[in-house]
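Exercise 7b. Backbone tokens:
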């Protein structure tokens, strides 16, 4: 089970092949049994577990007993990608948090320094100076990428760069 960032609904998966999006009651203690799911999808792949929602709430991922990771749109609940690398069943998934992104700024002939963005929701275009090194550009890209990690029965962890 995973709650979407806006707290308007939550997603569930289990041993069967169903992934469902349920409404989240506005007031605590008002759990009604007659609340129906917003949407239910039959994935035809039983044993989807480790459901996680990305920090921006646009996509979610599941780990499957069939050794595959599946990525879905949180809005339409359509399957966007099937990631195959593991040889045995997967247990869990996790998305990297894209909180404080570090930008590289070059001051007048001075040293290069990094400053953190305080508001991660602010959509500001970022320009990295041409003076920055390749290593600094790689670090900035790695810190602003939506990484997806998955763990399987054999103890192996895979890391994926997702959308």
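Sequence design result:
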């Amino acid at each position: 089970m995973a709650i979407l960032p806006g707290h308007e609904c939550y997603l569930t998966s289990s041993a069967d092949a169903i992934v469902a999006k349920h409404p989240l009651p506005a007031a605590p203690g008002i759990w009604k049994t007659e609340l129906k799911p917003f949407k239910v999808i039959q994935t035809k792949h039983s044993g989807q577990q480790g459901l996680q929602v990305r920090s921006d709430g646009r996509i979610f991922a599941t780990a499957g007993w069939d050794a595959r990771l599946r990525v879905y749109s949180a809005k339409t609940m359509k399957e966007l990608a099937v990631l195959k690398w593991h040889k045995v069943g997967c247990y869990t998934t996790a998305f990297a948090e894209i909180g404080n992104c570090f930008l590289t700024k070059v001051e007048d002939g001075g040293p290069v320094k990094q400053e953190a963005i305080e508001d991660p929701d602010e959509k500001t275009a970022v320009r990295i100076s041409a003076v920055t090194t390749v290593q600094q550009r790689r670090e900035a890209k790695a810190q602003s990428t939506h990484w997806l990690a998955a763990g399987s029965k054999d103890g192996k962890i895979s890391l994926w760069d997702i959308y």
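Instructor comment: Helices lie at 134-143. The chain has one helix and 13 strands.
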